[in-house]
Design a protein that fits this description.
- By secondary structure, the protein is of the alpha/beta class.
- The chain has one domain: Alpha-Beta Complex (Spore Coat Polysaccharide Biosynthesis Protein SpsA, Chain A).
- The chain is built from 11 helices and 9 strands.
- Strands 1, 2, 3, 4, 5, 6, 7, 8 and 9 form a 9-stranded mixed beta sheet that branches.
- The longest helix has 14 residues.
- The protein is globular, with a radius of gyration of 18 Å.
- The termini are far apart.
- The relative contact order is 0.14.
């Protein structure tokens, strides 16, 4: 019954094909329940259709009346999950693909390490055609993650599982970042209060799409990231370096940014 402690939260907006691929990628030795929140899509998913393609656990579907931002959709799902019996919440994005036994490996680690409150993994980065680009390898140790959170989020959001009880301390996603960087603000708050780690294994295929939020709203994302850094600012190498770095990133393209990450391991270490 290990999977019954876990529910996966997916915010959906106008990407039914990606949603279906993501659901079909979940391959575990136990049932995994799913909470899907549609953020006012033009073509909305239906519960009957979702249940017809996903049969490895319970499916919950919430339909928001209008598009309000992924942060609002995620918070709606989190608020509902807070009232349910699950102890662990996983995040997953439409279009991204789990590798086999991803959740089994994370749950095993969390069971062995009850002091770890947030657990991410590494990920294969691919383009829209599915061509492999690089493996994104964030730090695994908590102390290094705490330092490098100033540079960028040290968690790949759709890889993360966190213990629901952290919401009692840090709350939900911040409203002011509902359109971009809400996960960065959330995990920064979590890292300040709780032990957070990454598994040193690529357990997700992360698709970089031209229409993704991180691409379309890239400048807003970097701008919000700078605000978050300033909110947590303390004098030291990483806070000062991060402000300079993100100011530079604000003026360059997403494509050039990805090339720099690949060539220099900008976020790694």
């Amino acid at each position: 019954m290990i999977g019954k402690n876990l529910i996966v939260l997916i915010a959906h907006y106008n990407n039914l094909e990606g949603l279906e691929k993501t659901l079909l990628s979940i391959d575990e030795p136990f049932d995994v329940d799913i909470m899907i929140v549609d953020d006012g899509s033009e073509t909305k998913p239906t519960l009957n259709h979702l249940k017809s393609i996903y049969t490895k656990g319970e499916v919950f579907l919430e339909l928001l009346p209008k598009n309000q931002g992924v942060g609002i959709a995620a918070n709606h799902g989190l608020s509902l999950i807070q009232k349910m019996d699950y102890e662990l919440i996983a995040r997953l994005d439409c279009g991204d693909l789990n590798k086999p036994n991803k959740y089994q490996k994370q749950l095993d680690y969390l069971n062995r390490n009850p002091d770890v409150m947030v657990l991410g993994t590494w990920a294969d980065i691919v383009n829209e055609n599915g061509d492999f680009m690089f493996v994104l390898e964030f730090p695994t140790e908590y102390e290094k993650i705490k330092k490098k959170m100033f540079v960028n989020s040290m968690f790949i959001n759709p890889t993360v599982i966190f213990r629901k009880k952290i919401l009692d301390t840090i709350g939900l996603y911040k409203y002011e970042y509902r359109h971009a960087a809400q996960d960065y603000a959330f995990y920064f708050d979590a890292v300040k209060k709780f032990k957070c780690e990454n598994l040193p294994e690529s357990l997700l295929v992360y698709v970089i799409e031209e229409k993704s939020i991180s691409t379309q709203k890239r400048k807003l994302q970097v701008k919000n990231r700078i605000k978050i850094i300033l909110n947590h600012f303390e004098f030291g190498f990483y806070p000062i370096y991060s402000l300079l770095r993100n100011s530079f990133l604000y003026f360059i393209s997403r494509d050039l940014s990805n090339k720099l990450k690949k060539l220099t391991n900008f976020n790694n270490g």
